[in-house]
Each structure stands twice: as C-alpha cells, then as structure tokens.
Design goal:
Blueprint (H helix, E strand, L loop, with lengths): L2 E3 L8 H13 L5 E3 L4 E3 L16 H10 L6 E4 L5 E4 L4 H12 L6 H22 L2 H18 L8 H20 L4 H21 L4 H19 L3 H28 L7
Antiparallel strand pairs: 1-5, 2-3, 4-5
Helix pairs in contact: 1-2, 3-7, 4-7, 4-9, 5-6, 5-8, 6-7, 6-8, 8-9
C-alpha cells in the first residue's frame, strides 16, 4: 500500500463519502444528517462535520476524487489499524486512463512519431551508459533472428513472417527504452506504442524491402551502442524513426487510394 488516508473511524462508512461527493458536485447548500451516527455537514458553511471531532471538507473532496479515478483502487479495512487505503497503481491502469483521454483527441501518425522522435533518440544515447550485458545479448539475438529470416528465399516471406519481424522490431525498441531505467519514459513509450500498434494493424501490408531496411537500421543502432558511441546512436535512431514515419504516411495514402491491394 502506498498510503493510509487517516479518516476518523467514526465517519468511515462509505455512505457518507458518496453523499458528500454528490452534494459537493451539485453545489447545493443542503444539510445532511444521518440519525445513526449523528453526523452533520454543510458544504456552503465550511463543510465541516460535527460529532466529537471536526473534519475539514477537503477530506471529502480528496476521497471523491480518488474514488472516481479509474487509475486508483480504494480499499477499506476494518478493525485495529484499519481505514481507507490507496492501493498501488498499475502501469496498465494509467495506460487505460491515458488511452481514454487521447481517444477523444484527433491523433495522427505524425503525433505518434513526433513523440517517438522526442523519446527514443535520447534513450539510444543514454543506453550506452545504462544498458546491461544481458540486454545487449537480447538485442543481438533479436537482430540476428530477423536477419536470418530475411536471408531466406523470398517465396518463404509470408504475411505471418512479416508481422513476426514487425513484432521483433518493436521489441528491439522496447529493450533500448527499458534499459534507460526511467519509469516515466517507459510508461510514455508503452502507451505511444499501443497507439502505433493499432494504426499499423490497419495499415501494414507485407513488404520485404521495408523489413530489410528496418532491420538494417537496427543493426547500425546496435553497433553504435556496442561501440559506446551514444551520439551516433542517437542520430541513427532519429533518422530511422523519420524514415518509418514517412513510410507509414505514404502507406496510409496508398491504402486510401487502393483499399483492395494487399501489397505495397
């Protein structure tokens, strides 16, 4: 648990919190009284309770804010040491909230890649100092696997192979970002990539040439990282993302003009 909100035990019934929230939001100057507990409060007159102890109405406001947040879990425990607790917030809960917010915005591919070009080149530079030997091995295995698949005859390059390589390409970027060990950067990267994945599922068509230059760029980025050249790694990552952005924009126009075609 991250925090224990110290509400007085004699007002810990959920009914009062939700009543308080409703009256606060409506802004009416009602006066509420519960006969069982003899608790009175009035938002317009300072919003304080009277029942042996006085509690500022700020507590009601804070609780109603937490209770209404999809990213926060509220838990009440009874008995000695009990009270209202705020559970640890999961990354997934935050991503869901952000997705709900951004779904009402006019998002474009350019927005997604602009965010990536702000985050990922800096991560490529920082990774030189922070990446672990195990993560370098994972990157090498990732790129080598893709290279081996792409060296096979073209007739073996199916739609499934294309999307398998695309998944590995995303994993390559994820390993680099995670190696920075910055939870704020990692969280932002994760939900940006969730949006990108949704876009690509509607856009991408099998294209071996695309896969080949993507993996070739990954090999260059990895080589700069292994050689300790953060500046060149940063520049290569930016150019790599810019190329993919331009490709996706052209592909979007192509799909609009030729929705029936399965090859770009």
């Amino acid at each position: 648990m991250l925090a224990n909100i110290s509400f007085y035990k004699d007002i810990c019934h959920e009914k009062y919190y939700f009543c308080a929230s409703a009256f606060w939001q409506s802004g009416r100057s009602h006066r509420k009284k519960d006969k069982r507990e003899n608790i009175e409060w009035n938002p317009r007159s300072g919003g304080q309770t009277t029942h042996r102890k006085r509690v500022g109405f700020t507590i009601w406001r804070q609780y109603s804010h937490l209770a209404g947040s999809s990213a926060v879990l509220i838990e009440k425990k009874k008995g000695h040491g009990g009270g209202i607790f705020v559970s640890q917030i999961s990354d997934e809960s935050i991503k869901i909230s952000l997705s709900s917010f951004l779904n009402f915005k006019d998002l474009s591919i350019q927005h997604i890649y602009e965010a990536r070009m702000i985050l990922e080149p800096a991560c490529a530079r920082l990774a030189v100092e922070r990446i672990s030997p195990e993560e370098v091995i994972k990157l090498e295995e990732n790129v080598s696997w893709c290279e081996e698949i792409l060296n096979r005859p073209s007739q073996e390059f199916s739609e499934q192979v294309f999307f398998n390589i695309d998944d590995r390409a995303i994993e390559f970027h994820k390993i680099i970002v995670n190696s920075v060990r910055n939870p704020i950067v990692i969280l932002n990267f994760d939900y940006v990539m969730d949006f990108l994945k949704e876009c690509e599922l509607q856009l991408l068509v099998p294209d071996k040439n695309h896969s080949m230059w993507v993996i070739s760029d990954h090999r260059n980025i990895l080589d700069f990282l292994k050689n300790g050249d953060g500046k060149r790694g940063e520049e290569e990552m930016y150019l790599h993302l810019k190329k993919i952005e331009e490709y996706d924009i052209r592909l979007k126009e192509f799909r609009k003009e030729h929705p029936e075609k399965k090859v770009f």
